[in-house]
Amino acid sequence: MAKNKKKPGGYQRAKLTVEHTAFYPYLCDYLESRLIHNYAPETNRRHDSNIRKFITWCDERGITDPRSVTKPILERYKKHLYYSRKSNGEPMSFNGQATVLTSIKTFFKWLTQNNYLLYNPASELQLPRKPKQLPRNLLSLEETQDLLNAADIHSLSGLRDRAVMELLYSCGLRRQECANLQLHDIQLTQQTVFVREGKGGKDRVVPIGDSATQ
To answer: What is the Cα–Cα distance from 162 to 3, expressed in whole angstroms?
Structure first.
């Protein structure tokens, strides 16, 4: 699969081609509906990618119209995800399988609600149970401090790296949340950070530690 350059230091896989299928007009309307209802762009991008994978799988089996999809077909795709392997040879996690199937369930729910389908074939599709596991590799306090001190604060790039790591560690920010920060989002006097459109597209205010403000 070819890769398209997305931004410096990162690549995004090209979208799977599904424009030739009868699924495509519905997919376009579905994504537009989500935009109108103010769903987060990153969430919409993930839904688009997951649904395109399902459409491609269907197309390879001669299923080119959502009206031809049945519950047994969806169960077959669920099994396909279970046995599929990522590019590194590892199986897809149960969390990953559930994320893909959730996108498909939401898509077919929308199709039914908008009277494109007489019934929802995904209504009774059960998602894989997500394992409840704590993170395995947690850094100790000493290891965390060593990581922070690894940045050369005598250079501009090192000072930037140290500030980013302090923000991530002190505020519990996600990578994209940190990348989206504007200078005026950080209030040093109040020791708070305003996070715009974080997880679920929701804004929030988080405290910032003393070391991160220095």
So the answer is: 31
CB burial of residue 101 (10 Å; 0-12, 13-18, 19+): buried
Bridge partners, 204 (sequence order): 195
Residues facing residue 192 across a β-bridge: 187, 207
Specify the pLDDT at position 101: 97
**In terms of pLDDT, which residue wins out, 172 or 27?**
27
Euclidean distance between CA atoms 1 and 15, whole angstroms: 9
Nearest in space to 110 (alpha carbons), one of 197, 213, 39: 39
Query: In this structure, how many other beta carbons lie within 10 angstroms of the beta carbon of residue 192?
Result: 15
The alpha carbon of 37 is separated from its chain's Cα centroid by a whole number of angstroms, namely 18
- Which of 113-117, 146-150, 205-209 is most confident? 113-117
Q: Which of 50-59, 87-96, 98-107 is predicted with the least confidence, judged by mean pLDDT?
A: 87-96
Average pLDDT over residues 138-159: 78
Question: SS3 for 186?
Answer: strand
Token pair recorded at residue 35: 């935009």
Whole-number Cα distances in Å, 155 to 39, 69, 160: 40, 58, 9
Query: What letter would DSSP give residue 109?
Result: H
